[in-house]
Specification:
Keywords: Hydrolase, Magnesium, Manganese, Metal-binding. The protein has about 260 residues and is an alpha+beta fold. It has a single domain, classed as Deoxyribonuclease I, Chain A (4-Layer Sandwich). Helix content is about 30%, strand content about 25%. Strand 7, helix 6 and strand 8 form a beta-alpha-beta unit. The protein is globular, with a radius of gyration of 17 Å.
Length: about 260
């Protein structure tokens, strides 16, 4: 099974560019987890966005043009899933109203598509993000009592110095605070595996670049998009990768393949 995660920085924008349809046609993933779709569910229905061969399940924020997630699932896969359900949110309105969380139940595991909050430049949302992380970890631990979990999305944090081009200059900045990195450690301490790091060791590769100062052309980036999996899934890990040649957003897609 091939699963892709991609913060697209606006569904309308990437559809106009044709980047998403081209990507689906060329790579043929089974599931794509999208973050920051910036469109409400009502507008999704109204605009009838078409992705040939795939079905789209949106989770928009109450605030139009902000945040939001979506699952894009291959129609042929949908026909073969016995235990299929999609849940938007974790039952906590303080987090759910921004459309940040989707839980897809598959036959053998849960797939969580998450757009983690940005702490903001002034760290004004750092406390909110810490509470969000805690709630997500607790929720995943409950799910793991039934089935393993795969957590993917834009975590908005670089875990280690190797995960960003300029760690010293960014120490204490949003996305590289000790608090955010602590919570990533907590996910790993709970038994979850950072699949890219597990399979590729100290390989340096990034998934996000600022639009400023030609950062992407100079590869001054951050690795903030991840696939974390329960330890029970470790034997099924086939590939984990970052598709940093794919454009269309300030993020590039990241992928996971399971046997």
């Amino acid at each position: 099974m091939k699963i892709i995660s991609w913060n697209i920085n606006g569904l309308r924008a990437i559809m106009k560019k044709g980047a998403l349809v081209d990507f689906l046609t060329e790579t043929k993933p089974d599931i794509v987890c999208l973050q920051e779709i910036k469109i409400s569910v009502a507008k999704l229905v109204q605009e009838n966005i078409a992705l040939p061969g795939y079905s789209l399940f949106g989770n928009g924020a109450k605030r139009e043009g902000y945040s939001g997630t979506a699952l894009v699932i291959k129609d042929s896969l949908l026909k073969n899933i016995k235990n299929f359900s999609i849940k938007n949110g974790i039952g906590i309105d303080a987090f759910d109203h921004e459309g940040r969380i989707q839980i897809l139940e598959l036959d053998k595991f849960y797939l969580l598509n998450i757009y983690f909050p940005n702490a903001n430049h002034e760290l004004s949302r750092l406390s909110y993000k810490e509470k969000f992380n805690e709630a997500i970890l607790r929720y995943c631990q409950k799910l793991e009592q039934k089935k393993p979990v795969v957590i993917t999305g834009d975590f908005n944090v670089a875990h280690q110095p190797i995960d960003l081009a300029r760690p010293k200059e960014n120490e204490g900045n949003a996305g590289y605070t000790k608090e955010e990195r602590f919570w990533f450690d907590e996910f790993l301490s709970a038994g979850l595996i950072d699949t890219f790091r597990f399979l590729h060791g100290d390989k340096v590769q990034y998934s996000w670049w600022s639009f400023r100062m030609t950062a992407r052309a100079r590869n001054i980036g951050w690795r903030i998009d991840y696939f974390l999996v329960s330890s029970k899934i470790k034997p099924s890990l086939k590939k984990a990768y970052i598709l940093d040649k794919i454009t269309g957003s300030d993020h590039c897609p990241v992928g996971l393949e399971l046997n």
